[in-house]
Amino acid sequence: MTPAQHQGQNRLPPTKSAESVGRLCDDSPGLERLVRRARYLEMVDKALQQILGTSLAGHCRVANISGDTLILQTTSVAWGSRLRYLAPRLLEQLSRQLGWDRIKHTKVQVRPEAFPQRETPARRAHLSRQSAALLRDVANGTEDPDLRDALLRLSRRGR
């Protein structure tokens, strides 16, 4: 093994992902084009999100631009219908904002699986004071110790 080969094996990976992507792009023109395209689509998506506003923005995103067609993805048929209705206005605003002259059409795809599911925080159940008192009364009259403990724990959620 030559010293150069040995040195290449011991080289540590870059610590910053931007640096490593930059180096890869320098070595691969195809990858550089791909990264530029992804960044462009991300920029178009951000512009679209601003135009859509909060109610629709979470249910729609730019998937691609193919020829003269902007391809949008949405979470449901209902949101897709709304996007199709708004499409002419969206294209007009995006064209004005981004300086487009070639994008003339939109295509809407319904793809709920393409959107990450938002986890809703678990809500702790609360009981009224009356319900909590009733649970304590039932617990005190219950012979089964496991059931009694469970009812008492549940009763502590009373307000």
Question: Can you describe this structure?
Answer:
- With 159 residues, the protein is mainly α.
- It contains 7 helices and 3 strands; from the N terminus they run ααααββαβαα.
- The protein has helices at residues 3-9, 17-27, 29-52, 54-57, 77-98, 129-140, 145-155, and strands at 60-66, 69-74, 105-110.
- The chain starts with a helix and ends with a helix.
- The model is unreliable at 1-10 (pLDDT under 50).
Topology (elements, then pairings):
Elements: H1 3-9, H2 17-27, H3 29-52, H4 54-57, E1 60-66, E2 69-74, H5 77-98, E3 105-110, H6 129-140, H7 145-155
Parallel strand pairs: 2-3
Antiparallel strand pairs: 1-2
Would you tell me which CATH topology of the largest domain applies?
GMP Synthetase, Chain A, domain 3
At CATH's second level, what is the architecture of the largest domain? 2-Layer Sandwich
Number of strands: 3
- The level 1 CATH classification of the largest domain is Alpha Beta
Helix content class: 55-70%
Largest sheet: 3 strands, mixed
Rg calculated over all Cα atoms: 28 Å
What sequence of helices (H) and strands (E) makes up the elements? HHHHEEHEHH
Q: By helix and strand content, what is the structural category?
A: mainly alpha
Spans of at least 5 consecutive residues with low confidence: 1-10
The span between the termini is 75 Å
What is the overall shape? elongated
Q: What is the number of helices?
A: 7
